[in-house]
Specification:
Distance between the termini: 71 Å
Largest sheet: 7 strands, mixed
Number of helices: 17
Helix content: 40-55%
Shape: globular
Strand content: 15-25%
Radius of gyration: 27 Å
Length: 482
């Protein structure tokens, strides 16, 4: 696809937008219902595509891809009339009689760049927000998940309004052509390296962007005394590290912080949990996604080849190069200056860093770039408060992992190098809307100065009226005019 053809596509999107069709609540609801039909009627194709691209088990696909989007679409359908409603706003009595309102309106044409690790969710979940807000949309799926990309390109035009929602497939060259166009908002999920390219291109047109990145998400494990609590924590840590695309997720656990005296207990619990969840033979691991491609497979292997890192492996480390599988791997105290502790891992390697006191975890986290998420397993309310108030991150979750992603009532997004902008639920609607301020003023009670000697005196009352908005002062001001 060349630049000329892309311009034609954008012209059709602009025409759909200018016609006002996408502003209508009925159109928005029909498109959301179409997304639900697309998912319901093509489950098997989605299972097959994600099995091919990422080796995902159907249960994982339904939980993390189909189910997430269905939940989002259903929630948006139940709230869209309320979200779209014009909201009255208060005005100072100084402007009586008048009224004001805030009107949510679509931003325009939205470009969504999709990451390969959750190629259905990260295409359709932002789309739910963009449609709910009344925008036209171009989706650019990831070429690293080719079967899913082809599925989206084939099915979206069949189910959704093809004059308002389009899919553009391709690699880096197509992405570059897209970035040369003028958009009203760009939504990107991916790495910080590519995000810098997105931002630089968006700057040419002053296009606002939402960047959902990642970073090294830490998990703090306090000294839990009850054995049941420890087992629950181990299960949830295993799910938060390996359960979502085998650690290839921006919100996956990147490393664990724990006290020295508790580390051996935690390691043993994690070993048993991994064996029960996935098995022990790298050739026959169950319910575990593969590494997306050979490049990322080699990158992860290189992390383990550092002699100091290799010597810290206490469980796992085996690979199946033919099938691009790396088994769940636990490392105890790898060097803090090693690459595995400097860069986001984005894979099944889990370093555990030991501390003298668990309270030191706050200083450890603050000495590094702000993460997308912090997870902490503790019953200490004072420690919880310290984590919330003394650290900065996109989110904080206590006594579980990654579940914040599926909560429509919570904003999802990063801070600092983990990204900016937020979406999910009403936050998605807001992310793709502009709240237009509308003020209606009357021609009555025009306040004109008739007696110049009184101007300074009357200005004092005018200032008080602005500060305190007292109706009595306004009446007094009006009386002094006469």
């Amino acid at each position: 696809m060349d630049q000329v053809e892309m311009s034609i596509n954008l012209s059709e999107l602009r025409q759909s937008l200018s016609s006002g069709r996408t502003r209508d609540a009925a159109w928005r609801k029909s498109q959301l219902q179409a997304i639900l039909r697309l998912l319901n009627e093509n489950e098997d194709q989605i299972f097959q595509a994600l099995q091919h691209d990422l080796g995902k088990h159907p249960v994982e696909v339904y939980r993390d891809e189909i189910g997430v989007v269905k939940k989002s679409a259903i929630y948006a359908l139940s709230c869209i009339d309320k979200w779209m409603a014009t909201k009255n706003s208060q005005l100072p009595w100084l402007f009586f009689p008048s009224r004001a309102e805030v009107l949510p309106e679509p931003l325009g044409i939205v470009l969504i760049f999709v990451s390969w690790n959750f190629p259905i969710t990260l295409a359709l979940d932002p789309l739910v927000g963009a449609i709910s807000a009344g925008n036209t949309v171009v989706i650019k799926p990831s070429e690293l998940a080719p079967e899913t990309s082809a599925f989206l390109a084939k099915t979206i035009p069949v189910y959704l309004d093809s004059k308002a929602i389009k899919v553009v497939e391709g690699g880096v060259d197509i992405a570059g052509n897209l970035l040369q166009q003028k958009w009203d908002k760009i939504f990107f999920t991916g790495s910080a390296r590519v995000a810098r390219i997105i931002m630089a291109a968006a700057l040419n047109h002053l296009t606002p962007v939402i960047l959902e990145l990642g970073g090294k998400c830490p998990t703090i494990v306090d000294s839990l005394s009850a054995s049941l609590d420890l087992k629950v924590a181990a299960k949830r840590i295993a799910a938060g590290k390996w359960g979502a695309c085998n650690g290839q997720a921006c919100i996956a656990i990147d490393y664990i912080l724990v006290e020295h005296k508790f580390s051996s207990t935690l390691v043993e619990l994690l070993k048993k949990t991994v064996q029960r969840f996935y098995g022990e033979n790298v050739k026959s691991l169950k319910n575990l996604s593969k590494i997306v491609n050979k490049h990322h497979f080699n990158r992860l292997c290189n992390l383990m080849e550092d002699p100091a890192v290799a010597s810290s492996i206490v469980y796992g480390g085996k690979i199946d190069e033919e099938n691009l599988i790396i088994e769940p791997t636990i490392l105890l105290d790898p060097p803090l200056d090693s690459e595995i502790m400097q860069e986001e891992i984005f894979g099944p390697l889990l370093p555990i860093i030991t501390l003298d006191k668990i309270k030191d975890s706050i200083e450890f986290i603050n000495s590094r770039p702000k993460p997308l998420a912090i997870y902490a397993f503790t019953k200490d309310d004072a420690f919880k408060k310290a984590i919330v108030t003394e650290t900065s991150s996109g989110s904080v979750t206590f006594n579980d992992t990654i579940i914040q992603f599926v909560c429509d009532g919570l904003p999802f997004g990063g801070v600092g190098q983990s990204g900016f902008g937020r979406y999910h639920g009403k936050y998605s609607f807001d992310a793709f809307s502009h709240e237009k301020a509308v003020l209606h003023r009357s021609f009555h009670l025009e306040l004109g100065a008739r007696h110049p000697p009184w101007i300074d005196f009357k200005m004092k009352f005018l200032r008080l009226a602005y500060m305190y908005d007292y109706w009595g002062l306004i009446l007094l001001y009006l009386g002094l005019k006469r």
